[in-house]
Design brief:
Distance between the termini: 32 Å
Radius of gyration: 19 Å
Membrane topology: Multi-pass membrane protein
Subcellular location: Cell membrane
Number of helices: 7
Protein name: Biotin transporter
Number of domains: 1
CATH architecture: Orthogonal Bundle
Number of strands: 2
CATH class: Mainly Alpha
Strand order of the largest sheet: 1-2
Keywords: Cell membrane, Membrane, Transmembrane, Transmembrane helix, Transport
Helix content: 55-70%
Family: Belongs to the BioY family.
Largest sheet: 2 strands, antiparallel
CATH topology: Arp2/3 complex 21 kDa subunit ARPC3
Shape: globular
Low-confidence stretches: 190-196, 198-203
Mean pLDDT: 86
């Protein structure tokens, strides 16, 4: 029997929920020299990619960026307005979009496991975001690329901790409520369970 598709309203609610989560986590802020703070916002980005997948997670990011563009203080430290899109953090924000796509593709490429979720969080939530953020930060601030990359090492321990937290939370959510995840992933898990061999009973 084919599983019924999730209502569009349910998807929109989940997308909006993760956009709100990203905004709330932006209130967790540790300033650093160079203009780019350590923020809890990337934890929300990682969770969005893990739970919503490559198709829906970018919509959560775009909602946050759209709200920032119209001036709402939704980014880390209560920032908003068009000025943030020409500041040193703009590359990281662009990286969020690419990052959640990569996270979703890796995490949902097969059975949802802790190692696949962890790999997705590190590759998409750290490496991809850095690849966008560091060059743009160097260009905007006028600091050489190698020095900017070196200074970004200050973010790495915190980002690795956030990747671990995102992995634990996403795996726990998947075990408790798999319907929160993309339908294709849920169907694969259901199909695998249905076709798994059953051990013979001992009379």
């Amino acid at each position: 029997m084919t599983a019924s598709r999730r209502p569009l309203s349910a998807d929109l609610a989940r997308i909006a929920l993760f956009a709100a989560l990203i905004v709330v986590l932006g209130t967790v802020l540790v300033p650093l020299p160079g203009g780019v703070p350590i923020t809890g916002q990337t934890l929300g980005v990682m969770l969005a990619g893990l739970v919503l997948g490559a198709r829906r997670a970018p919509l959560s990011i775009l909602i946050v960026l759209a709200l920032a563009a119209i001036g709402l203080p939704v980014l880390a430290g209560g920032r908003g307005g068009l000025g943030v899109f020409v500041g040193p953090t703009v590359g990281y924000m662009i990286g969020w979009i690419a990052g959640v796509v990569v996270i979703g593709l890796i995490a949902h490429s097969g059975r949802f496991t802790w190692w696949r979720a962890g790999l997705a969080s590190v590759v998409g939530g750290i490496v991809v975001i850095y690849l966008f953020g560091i060059p743009v930060q160097a260009w905007v601030t006028g600091v050489p690329l190698d020095l900017t990359a070196l200074s970004s090492l200050a973010f790495l321990p915190g980002d690795l901790i956030k990747a671990a937290i995102a992995t634990v939370l996403a795996v726990a959510l998947y075990r408790a409520y798999p319907r929160a995840f993309p339908e294709a992933l849920t169907r694969r898990g259901t199909a695998a369970a249905a076709t798994a061999p059953v051990a013979p009973s001992v009379a």
